[in-house]
Amino acid sequence: MDLNTTATIYQPPLGVFNVTNQSADLSSGDPQDGLDIKNALWSQVSGKPFTVKIVALDDDKTTLKNFTGNVILDLVDSTNITDEQSTCTNAPLLQQYKNPNPKTNLFSNQSTKDFTLQYDKAHANSRFRVKFYDFSTIETIEGQPCSVSITSANINGVPQCFNDMNKIKKYFPLCSDDYTNVCVSNQQGGDDNWKCYECITGYNQPVCSRDNFAIRPAAYNIGINVTRLIGKKEYTLDINATMLNSDTNVSGYNQTINNSADKNGTDEFVLPLTCTTLTTDKKTLSNEATFIEGRSEATAYASRNVGDVLITYNDNLWTQIDRSAYNTKAFSDCIESSSTNTANGDGKIGCLLSGSKQFYFFPKAFDNTLLLQNFNNGNFTYLSNDGNMSAELLFSPRAILEDNTTATNYTAGCFARDITYTVELNGSIQDKRNRIRYFEDGVTSNFENNNTIATATFSSTEDNFISGTANNLQMLFNFTRNINSTDEPFRIKRNDFNITSVIDQNNTSGDDFNRTNDHNATFYYGRVYSTDYKGESPITTTIRYELYCKDCNRTDFNITSAQSPTSLTWYQNTLHVNADGNVTTNGFTSVGTTLINNANTATSGNIANGFESNTLSLANGTPAPYTDRIQMRPSSWLLHNLYNPNAITNDFNVEFIRSGNWVGKGTLRQTVDLNLSKQTQSEYER
Fold first, then answer.
1. With contact defined as beta carbons under 8 Å apart, do 364 and 231 qualify?
2. What was the pLDDT predicted at 9?
3. Average pLDDT for consecutive 10-residue bins of the chain (686 residues)?
4. Would you say residue 227 lies in a domain?
5. Residue 648: Cβ within 10 Å count
6. Host domain of residue 381
7. What residues contact 563, with CB distance under 8 A and at least 6 apart?
8. Same domain assignment for residues 276 and 316
9. Before 13, cis peptide (omega within 30)?
């Protein structure tokens, strides 16, 4: 039968028996139309017991008749059964069912009998064949009445009155010892042996049920014999069409799932509730699955991405003969669009053979890039013990599939996971390995530990992954700095670092990074500095932001500015702006009463080209001459005091004078000024 077209239904010749569904109401008789619902046989499930109704009929093939005796019920292949009796008689046997209680009658003056059976294989087109013999048609044997209800004979299914080989030979010579010898007492194999009775039924034409039906597997069991599955890597599906409550394959199911509307395999992503950026993206699989005796072992499958994937196989054509779309009935013998194995109130199960299995596919690895940049993506970084002044390692792990493309489903809220990663400054620069310090930004990365010299482990949450990549996870770092000990400028290259480990919560891992296009960061030892000042109030001061270079090659380190006014080893940092550090809030103070920008305290104003200006003036009521010390509390990386490693300010002196004929010498907070001369503003070089 072509499983893609409407089936041609043949009804076998009617007989005095029929088999129909258990719930059929035959109180008014059994209609001869095989398409009538009273004759319907429902679809069944392999390995599941089901009950049918065997019906005894009068010679009109419609009226129910009380019958006493046994029948043998054959489950046969109905594929080639037509309206010719021979096709019923010769239909291939699938399984035979007899009275489970030997030496009794299945029917005892009854017109119907419920009979429970089970078939442990699959068959798309099945039918029942009833074999019987009505011993009541033989009223007497050798002049003696024969009671068919007395079944204590040694031969199953044969009344006591026939318990004599001579009688068997007389009435059923083809079953006697001259032919088959099946009715000889010593040939009976026990309670399960019905050979003699079956031979006797051959004296009648068997009757085939007026309806046929399908027996489908219970479900598909889908497996992949690999522990850890990688997105886009090809695997072989192991699919079993199973009987009920079993994972093993059921024989008889030979089918090709060709990914048509009625026979297909699909996959779709199963999204967590937190995943709002992806869709399930259900697709029909491209590869066919061929089942031989209930098993398919050669179907290639590769997931399209990472995450939870639900693979489903459906066969809606195995039960085709029971579906109204194909069998011209006004109803279906199973529940359309359902795969349930639990019968409904009418006794029907689902038409659909289906099975699903959810698998989790992981990224193959993390493919990493690393970018090194100076503080604020500028041109330099000051040495600092404070993480607020740090160079940046921008780490970008990318989850990849088997073909090295990006695993775009590895995204926040969906299938991304928290990761940890370890960075190490390699051993080629041992001095810097001992001094490097790592910091976190607290947003893209969290510092976990640096239990090993030059090494630190960071973590990052899944929230930083978008479409497979976490861009620019910041690992901040710098090198230890002493207030009273300077450092020459130096550079650190990106390739001086190793990424020794990257791993997520699901043990997806990766290491190292693409090392092409190496680049570096420049580190300066810096300070904020001012010369001493002397002059009439107000005095305009210049605050300098400088870097140290004694033995360095200034050209190599882009130091092109002038030397400090008082030192040959300090140079103006013309690249310095406010963001690179300054005198902090209210960080300008005086030991005495000097006003700074007309206030008791001040904060750095605009810094341009490494300079800023402040105005110092005498407080009201403070006469000149007057000497004071101005203290600057800067960012920690701008502190420098050659003699005091615990200093918290950089200081300079200011001396206010008054015009006069001569000038005496003032002391701190005191004035000696006879107004004898006029002195101009000057800087002390020291």
1. yes
2. 67
3. 55 96 93 94 98 97 96 98 97 95 90 97 98 88 79 80 80 78 68 84 96 98 97 98 96 97 98 98 97 96 98 98 94 97 96 98 98 97 97 98 99 98 89 93 89 94 98 97 98 96 97 94 98 96 98 94 94 97 95 96 94 96 96 97 96 91 42 37 42
4. yes
5. 12
6. 365-522
7. 570, 571, 572
8. yes
9. no
pLDDT per residue as tens digits for the range 597-616: 999 999 999 999 999 999 99
643 φ/ψ angles, rounded to the nearest 5 degrees: -110, -10
How far from 235 is each of 231, 292, 308, 407, 508, CA to CA, in Å?
Answer: 10, 19, 16, 18, 19
DSSP states of 473-498 = EEEEEEE--BTTB----EEEEGGGEE
Query: Which amino acid appears at position 550 of this protein?
Result: K
DSSP letters for 122-179: -EEEEEEEEEE--GGG--EETTEE--TT---SSSTTS-GGG-SHHHHHHH-GGGSTTT
User: Would you say residue 11 lies in a domain?
Assistant: no
CA distance linking residue 668 with residue 682, whole number of Å = 18
Distances (CA, A) of 98 to 74, 114, 204, 455, 592: 9, 13, 17, 80, 119
Q: CA-CA distance, 600 to 617, in Å (whole number)? A: 10
What is the model's pLDDT at position 191?
A: 57
How far apart are alpha carbons 470 and 458 in whole angstroms?
A: 14
Q: What angle do CA 148, 154, 157 make, to 5 degrees?
A: 40
129 Cβ contact list (under 8 Å, min separation 6): 73, 74, 75, 76, 88, 91, 206, 207, 208, 209
Helix then strand then coil, in percent of the chain rounded to 5, is: 10, 40, 50
pLDDT of residue 686: 35
| Residue 305 vs residues 63, 270, 524, 540: alpha-carbon distances, Å | 64, 12, 47, 67
Nearest to 455 by CA among 429, 427, 425: 425
- Tokens 């072989």 correspond to 236
Beta-bridged to residue 567, according to DSSP, are 564
> What tokens were used for 8?
């041609």
Distance, in Å, from the CA atom of 68 to the CA atom of 22, rounded to the nearest integer, reads: 20
In a domain, 678, yes or no: yes
Nearest CA to 230 out of 311, 313, 309, 310 is that of: 309
Contact 428, 496 (CB under 8 A): yes
Burial class (CB in 10 A: 0-12, 13-18, 19+), 202: middle
503: CATH: 2.60.40
Total of domains in the chain: 4
For 53-101, give the DSSP string.
EEEEB-TTSSSB--EEE-EEEEEEE-TT--SSHHHHHTPPEEEEE--SS
The pLDDT value given to residue 124: 98
Boundary residue ending a domain (194, 213, 232): 213
pLDDT at 170: 85
Residues 472 and 541 in one domain: no
DSSP-derived secondary structure for 292-310: BTTEEEEEEE--SSSEEEE
**Which residues on adjacent β-strands are paired with residue 292?**
295
Same domain, 180 and 192: yes
Phi-psi region at 138: left, alpha or beta (left = phi > 0; alpha = psi -120 to 50)? beta
3-state DSSP call for residue 462? helix
With respect to residue 625, please indicate whether it lies within any of the assigned structural domains: yes
Q: Token pair 């019987």 is at which residue? A: 132
Q: Find all residues with CB under 8 Å of 1, minimum gap 6, and list them.
A: 7, 8, 79, 124, 125, 320, 321
Burial class (CB in 10 A: 0-12, 13-18, 19+), 284: exposed
Contact 181, 168 (CB under 8 A): no
